[in-house]
Design brief:
The structure holds three protein chains of three kinds. By secondary structure, chain A is α/β, with parallel strands linked by helices. Chain A contains 13 helices and 15 strands. In chain A, helix 3 packs parallel to helix 5. By secondary structure, chain C is mainly beta. Chain C has a two-stranded antiparallel sheet. Classes of the chains: A alpha/beta, B alpha/beta, C mainly beta.
Chain lengths: 398, 191, 106
């Protein structure tokens, strides 16, 4: 069994630590707040000889992901990290990494996109990369960020998946807060992730291959996209299988959809990332006062767990979705759209209200969550649902 | 001690508030408590007013928002009293500790705060200059904090301090820091 | 091992290699592009000094060389771009319309 060590550490520190324990061959990275300390601490570990990774300094995120793609096609285990504008600058390469079926693992420190310039947390950056074809995890805590990084490595390299994986953690809230985190010894982690044996490596001179072919009009581009769809569907099972194995090692259970208080809940909030903690805290308080409130936390955003989510929300009187990103002109934020779609096949129609919250790091005060739960109680008691999306906590005229 | 203690730190960037928030959290971990420490990041530069937060709890901490109703407020620079409402949201039986030469009664008169809350003052900068030979008030302020609240254990704090310092400094610097903590512990006055 | 792609036109997503990897080196040789050509190069051996500049610049590696001397053109792959004729310092290469009788066009 592994040795567990409890640390006082930031989310970024333990992500860098998890990456070191996965022993990537190559990291090509560019610093950006609030991700910087991941690659900075990783570079220091390379310099001190604590990990044997070819660390490539590049001039932009566009180049960082390009170098990662090249290294991964060459047959290396590759990891990197980014945030916000950096992720946006990588956008075209994100699709290439997925289309070439390269199992790159990347951490993203979730941060708002300009304009106005803002360095703080929301999920706008990651939602911009929503359809790039990456398996995507969300972390509530530094502990989850550590665990997700290790699991990501196995999921990405699984023969039924072979897709890049993004593990996300909330900028500053999780990246820079010192938290109590349990980490495992190096041998246990490297034993769990194993050695990456690429099937088609550019550097395998005995079996020469070509990566990055053209597939134009009349070619099988369409068929390759279907392969990606199937790989992403396969990831549903692989994510769970890997998590089950990891739980045996770490002692920390995982589910793609995690629930709290849903056994007898009448209403629930659906949420991703660090705000799940705030929400659980409020739900606990309300439950102590006799309110039957629940929490549904999404831990894997792609592939989206629509079946598990629909099952968790079955029979409720009202549901609130907390979206930390906008989809201007849509009926609500990205998580709302997924949630309502997941509920379309439900026998009973459940009212779903969307709350846009915490954009640009706007503080997620407990009273905001209380307000959303209050709305849900009102709806459950027969009241009308507020017209969404509600800008939760935005200044309003008195 | 109650289940959850929330500390808010006010300082100027460069005074070591973030480090202090972190070391107090680490000390709590050494006593097998749950803890959280985070700075409120902004585009600040040396000298700009900053805030940092520490939470210490007997049970896991789930909340990730800023601290609005602190049990304890630590002010590392008394010039902030003029420009920041440092007592904002302080709980009724809370305590605010300020690095200043001004007596606590005078500091209290300048703050709007609950009647039952305590105000404590210590010349942490003076102590730091005497002992460490540099104006780094964060370490002695933790000594005063421990005296007032017992939020973490003194010996555990000193041993962690020594461990952290020993990465860069010798025993002389450790002794100087220990002395600063002891003096602040002794010299802090309350009103 | 030869990668059999003769039935590729009827392949579904199941037959295509993952990530559009081409698992066989150099098989572009099997793809005959000579049919795209409207003019073909013709080399006058008497004018040619065997400087090999045409061999260097040919984008389709279609100038055949043996014993450091240009022999013929690979007309299965030459697309008739005419770069060889352009760079030839002694005007030893002419571009001749496809379908013309060779060789004495000029």
């Amino acid at each position: 069994m592994p040795e567990h060590k409890t640390l006082a550490a930031t989310g970024n520190t333990v992500v860098a630590e998890a990456m070191r324990q996965c022993k990537p061959d190559v990291m090509a990275a560019y610093p950006i707040t609030p991700q910087t300390t991941i690659v900075e601490e990783y570079a220091a570990m390379v310099a001190k000889g604590r990990v044997h990774t070819e660390y490539v300094t590049v001039e932009s995120e566009h180049s960082a992901m390009s170098a990662c793609i090249g290294a991964s096609a060459a047959g290396a285990r590759v990891m990197t990290a980014t945030s916000s504008q950096g992720l946006a600058l990588m956008w075209e390469e994100l699709h290439i990494a997925a289309g070439m079926r390269l199992p790159i693992v990347m951490a993203n420190a979730n941060r708002a996109l300009s304009a106005p310039i803002n360095i703080h947390c929301d999920h706008s950056d990651i939602m911009g990369a929503r359809d790039a074809g990456w398996v995507t995890y969300f972390a509530e805590t530094a502990q989850e960020a550590y665990d997700n990084t290790i699991m990501a490595c196995r999921v990405a390299e699984h023969p039924d998946v072979m897709l890049p994986v993004m593990t996300t953690l909330d900028g500053f809230i999780t990246t820079h807060s010192i938290d109590r985190v349990s980490v495992m010894d190096d041998e246990s982690v490297s034993g769990f992730v194993g050695q990456y044996v690429p099937k088609t490596a550019l550097l395998d001179l005995e079996n020469p291959v070509m990566h990055g072919a053209f597939s134009g009009l009349g070619g099988p581009y369409f068929e390759f996209k279907k392969q990606q769809r199937i790989a992403m569907e396969n990831a549903r099972k692989v994510v769970k299988d890997v998590a089950e194995e990891y739980a045996k090692l770490s002692g920390r259970p995982f589910d793609v959809v995690e629930t709290w208080g849903m056994e007898d809940a009448e209403t629930a909030i659906v949420v991703m990332g660090s705000t799940a903690g705030n929400t659980r805290h409020v739900a606990r308080d309300l439950r102590a006062k006799g309110e039957r409130m629940g929490l549904v936390k999404i831990r894997v955003w792609r592939p989206f767990p629509h079946v598990e989510l629909a099952a968790a929300l079955k029979g409720l009187k009202a549901v609130a979705v907390l979206d930390r990103a906008e989809s201007f002109g849509a009926e609500g934020g990205p998580l709302f759209l997924e949630t309502r779609s997941a509920l379309y096949d439900a026998a009973e129609r459940i009212p779903v209200v969307d709350y846009i919250y915490g954009l640009g790091g706007s503080d997620v005060k407990l009273e905001l969550i209380e307000r959303a739960y209050k709305d849900l109680s009102d709806i459950a008691a027969g009241g009308a649902a507020p017209a969404g999306p509600v800008y939760l906590g935005a200044r309003e005229e008195a | 001690m109650q289940q959850l203690t929330e500390i808010r730190w006010h300082a100027r960037a460069g005074q070591g508030a973030v480090t202090a928030a972190k070391v107090v959290a680490e000390t709590a971990l050494a006593a097998d408590q749950y803890m959280q420490a985070m700075p409120e990041y902004g585009p600040e530069r040396m000298g700009a007013p900053i805030k940092a937060f520490t939470r210490i709890s007997k049970v896991p901490i789930e909340i990730h928002c800023n601290i609005e109703n602190p049990d304890i407020v630590v002010v590392l620079d008394d010039s902030l009293l003029e420009i920041v409402n440092v007592a904002d949201g302080l709980v009724d039986d809370g305590v605010i500790v300020v690095n200043t030469c001004t007596p606590p009664a005078e500091v209290r008169a300048r703050l709007s705060m609950p009647a039952n809350a305590r105000v404590a003052c210590v010349d942490a900068s003076g102590i730091a200059l005497d002992t460490i030979k540099r104006d780094i008030p964060n370490t002695p302020m933790v000594g005063a904090l421990i005296k007032l609240t017992g939020v973490v254990d003194m010996e555990a704090f000193k041993s962690l301090l020594a461990k952290n310092l020993s990465k860069k400094f010798g025993q002389e610097m450790i002794d100087a820091n220990w002395a600063s903590v002891d003096r602040a512990f002794e010299e802090v006055t309350v009103a | 091992m030869k990668w059999d792609i003769s039935e590729m036109g009827s392949w579904t997503y199941k037959q295509f290699p993952q990530g559009a990897v081409i698992p066989e080196a150099g098989n572009s040789n099997d793809y005959i592009t000579g049919g795209w050509r409207s003019e073909r190069p013709w080399r006058n051996d008497e004018k040619c000094t065997q400087c090999l500049l045409c061999w260097i610049v040919c984008p389709d590696s279609s100038v055949r060389v043996a014993d450091e001397k240009v022999t013929t053109f690979d007309l299965d792959h030459c697309k008739g771009c005419g770069i060889c004729a352009q760079v030839c310092p002694t005007d030893a290469i002419d571009m001749v319309p496809e379908g013309c009788d060779l060789p004495e066009v000029k």
